[in-house]
């Protein structure tokens, strides 16, 4: 499956637009990861726990979107947009949503 943020695929022609497809993933970040990330904020450096949680959520959201496109028998997803949100200030939930247009290519 070709997945791109552009509105076309170089060297291929879009012959049919099949509709919007989306994927979402909500991940909780546990208290220990929060605690160690707070320490990193004080001393500097990268918050590896959060990075891993974001990566996992992004991969899950993309997998859901691609599954939706396969159900439509799409060859590609174009115009992909990725959004990140924190759900609630205190609950430690991360939302990653992705969406794009499923297409058939020639």
From TrEMBL:
Protein name: UPF0145 protein QO018_001575
Assigned protein family: Belongs to the UPF0145 family.
SUPFAM superfamilies: YbjQ-like (SSF117782)
């Amino acid at each position: 499956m070709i997945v791109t943020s552009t509105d076309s695929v170089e060297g291929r022609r879009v012959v049919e637009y099949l509709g919007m497809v989306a994927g979402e993933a909500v991940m909780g970040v546990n208290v220990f990861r929060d605690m160690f990330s707070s320490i990193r904020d004080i001393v500097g450096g990268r918050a590896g726990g959060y990075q891993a949680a974001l990566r996992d959520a992004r991969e899950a959201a993309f997998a859901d979107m691609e599954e939706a496109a396969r159900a439509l028998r799409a060859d590609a997803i174009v115009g992909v947009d990725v959004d990140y949100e924190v759900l609630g200030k205190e609950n430690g939930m991360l939302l990653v949503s992705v969406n794009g247009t499923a297409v058939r290519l020639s």
